[in-house]
């Protein structure tokens, strides 16, 4: 007996008591399980987990956001920054000497690779996993603008954009929208577990937590 026959035989035995015409949609599934561990301070938990993933976390208020973004870009030596069409213009108002690159369909991977930084908002942030989720909203732009440039500044409005857990985040997201889930800067490890950053995304992720 082949391995395939063994596996299929086990599947048939497991389905022996299932009516032939029944589909998975016909059987209600109880989903009353716990969806969060309810951290005492979700924003503090998010900041801690982001830092654990080697993201750089900053705190400010709405009034101080433009100056902070300007300082982050200046410290990076950025001369160009990609700006999604729906990014609030005041966010980059203090970025003196930095040229804005519009997020358009004409941008090529080469254009993005030559751009120093990108600034976006986010759709939601998950405290328990230290994850930022982008869904292509007006202040986030196309997926590729956050995958090619080497430096990403992501703004999270707290506490309204912060949820405790992944199940809570999924309730806020539309499945049909393009999603990018970010837990720290892009990184991978080779067979000897040597960590390499910036392989398939930005080498540096800076997350700004803004209390409005």
How many beta-strand runs?
12
Reported by name, the CATH topology is: Rossmann fold
Task: Indicate the radius of gyration in whole angstroms.
Answer: 22 Å
Number of domains: 1
Domain LUD: 110-210
InterPro entries: FTHF_cligase-like_sf, LUD_dom, NagB/RpiA_transferase-like
Region (Disordered): 19-41
Biased composition (Basic and acidic residues): 29-40
Q: Explain this structure to me?
A:
By secondary structure, the protein is an alpha/beta fold. The protein has one domain (39-211): 3-Layer(aba) Sandwich (Rossmann fold). It is 22% helix and 25% strand. It has helices at 3-14, 42-52, 65-76, 109-113, 166-172; strands spanning 56-61, 80-83, 99-102, 117-120, 124-126, 131-134, 151-158, 162-163, 180-182, 187-189, 195-197, 204-211. Strands 1-12-7-4-2-3 form a six-stranded parallel β-sheet, with helices on both faces. A four-stranded mixed β-sheet has the order 8-5-6-9. Strands 10-11 form a two-stranded antiparallel sheet. The longest helix is centred in the N-terminal third of the chain and has 12 residues, at 3-14.
């Amino acid at each position: 007996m082949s391995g395939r026959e063994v596996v299929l035989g086990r599947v048939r035995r497991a389905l022996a008591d299932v009516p032939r015409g029944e589909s998975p949609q016909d059987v209600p599934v109880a989903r009353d399980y716990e969806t969060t561990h309810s951290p005492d301070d979700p924003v503090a938990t998010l900041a801690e987990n982001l830092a654990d993933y080697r993201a750089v976390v900053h705190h400010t208020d709405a009034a101080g956001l433009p100056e902070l973004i300007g300082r982050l870009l200046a410290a990076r030596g950025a001369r160009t920054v990609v700006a999604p069409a729906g990014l609030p213009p005041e966010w980059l108002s203090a970025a003196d000497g930095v040229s804005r690159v519009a997020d358009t369909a004409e941008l090529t991977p080469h254009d993005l690779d030559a751009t120093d930084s990108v600034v976006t908002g986010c759709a939601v942030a998950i405290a328990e996993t230290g994850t930022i989720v982008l869904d292509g909203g007006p202040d986030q732009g196309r997926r590729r603008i956050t995958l090619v440039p080497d430096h990403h500044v992501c703004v999270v409005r707290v506490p309204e954009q912060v949820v405790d857990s992944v199940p809570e985040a999924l309730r806020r997201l539309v499945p049909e929208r393009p999603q990018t889930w970010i837990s720290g800067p892009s990184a991978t490890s080779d067979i000897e577990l040597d960590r390499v950053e910036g392989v398939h995304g930005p080498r540096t992720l800076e997350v700004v937590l803004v209390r409005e």
